[in-house]
Design goal:
Layout lengths: L2 H19 L3 E10 L4 E6 L9 E4 L2 E5 L7 E5 L6 H7 L5 E4 L1
């Protein structure tokens, strides 16, 4: 295992521990389908273990409504950032914190 991979893995586990301590969970974006404006559907790597009402990616909060076991759910964003900016953030491989 490379040193860079080990460091990244440690960082991810550290972030995961912080998220869990705050009552949140981490996940990874698999794909994004954009709808109108700043809304769409997110597909994540791991099925959700509890319902969530929001997620954070790169410090930006998005609203969602999920169910236990879901790997795909609609999202919406209400704020000053443009769709173009959000598309640069919500990409496959991006880590998100579900709350």
């Amino acid at each position: 295992m490379s040193h860079e991979y080990e460091e990244a893995s440690k960082d991810m586990h550290g972030e995961e521990a912080k998220a869990h301590a705050l009552g949140a969970s981490m996940n990874v974006i698999r794909s994004v389908s954009w709808g109108q404006g700043t809304s769409g559907t997110l597909n994540v790597a791991t099925a959700l273990t509890r319902p969530c009402s929001s997620f954070v990616a790169s410090g930006i909060m998005f609203q969602i409504q999920t169910t236990v076991g879901a790997t795909s759910f609609p999202f919406t964003y209400h704020g000053p950032r443009t769709r173009t900016v959000l598309q640069q953030i919500l990409r496959p491989g991006t880590n998100i914190v579900l709350q």
